[in-house]
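Bug #77: duplicate submission created two jobs. Keeping one. Sequence:
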Amino acid sequence: MLRVFSHYIPTSIILLIIVEILVFYSSVYIGVELRFYGSENKEALISLIEPLNFKALIFAFLMLFSMTAMGLHTRNIVDHFSGMMIRVILGFCLGFIVTAIIYYIYPGFFLGRGVVAITFATAFIGILISRIIYWRFDNHNIFKRRLLIMGAGGKGKLLEDQIRHAKKRGYEIIGFVDVNQSEVRVNKERILEIKSTLLDLCVENRVDEIVLAMDDRRKGFPLSGLLDCKMKGVIVHDILDSLERITGHIEIDALHTGSIIFSSGFTKAVSPNGIKRAFDVFASLIILILTGPFIVLTYIAIWISSFGRDPVFYKQLRIGLSEVPFEVRKFRSMKVDAEKNGAQFAQKNDSRVTLIGGFIRKTRIDELPQLFNVLKGEMSFVGPRPERPEFVLGYNNSIPNYILRHAVKPGITGWAQICYPYGETSEDTKKKLQYDLYYIKNYSLFLDMTIMLQTIQVVLFGQGAR
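Kept job's structure:
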């Protein structure tokens, strides 16, 4: 797992991205060579479409963004090979549309129809081969790191529950060490005994990392043993850091005030940032321009569906930065009397949703009016979803550190929205908070752009919509 601009990305995915960039880049040169192979004036023809290196780089990054937008570079990469290949095909379709638009806007980037056709065909074959190889290596096995967990109590149990996810992320939990905790909560068959020294145990089991997961570090903390291991090259991590790398979220049950105070994160997202504001305004204006026709058509469709009797927009009070309430506006997707019995979450196949409402909720068109909240500065484009006051009061009392999500502006999309499905229970809200805290802790403009790209595949595949 590597950290890129504070964001954890599996090593195998980074290697896959590098390979795919090389595939896309070289495909342009292969396309040119095959297109003009055998031509008497080959050099003269190639000179007409120079500089190839710059155009190849543009093509590579446009296709890479398209692949990322289809969810092909996510932590929870598609589990089924057929599903992954569908996304690859859709990624190429999106890439073709994007490059066609770029060629139309900037004709100087165009390589010629023959070269482009061969380039896309070559790139598809190259990506297909690289994905098959990636799949055969079981995604992360060649980068797997072996973890030894110090602690077999409640915190150790948190890691034991993540064994399956850890394997997918490139980590193998080889066992747990009971260091005089009050209660053993992990499977006793997974407990390893220190027969001589902790270092010998690590050498014997080829341990790469030790994770400190003790419920009470005042009891049985193996200070000298850990020092010996670290000096021999074994990395020592705290449980919170390890869970963050494995799961892509911050485990609330392992989070305490001290870890927030002394953490290197939790600062960039909450500090005034002119770059983020500029990014929000720029992104909102671009999307408003691109989706303008859909906004107009949706307005007309909702107005006609009620013969102009009911409002087109739905206004609702939400809690924003520093717990200051603001009014959010969305296209009305439910019946006018949808909340006559009080505030409630949307259910699956909710009878309150109108015919048009079902479509615009699935495609997220109902969210587009919130772009004006972003332009007004009440929301950010990326951030925790704004919640209703009726729910916030209860969550502040029942979910630890829930108030931290109000340290930043709420967003239209966010890390929780692309990593976790729609939630309708307090437990779902708690789990989504863990992703929101990851975003707040590890905020960067790079993470914002990553979330925006991955939001495309969430919309296209209708993930989490109700």
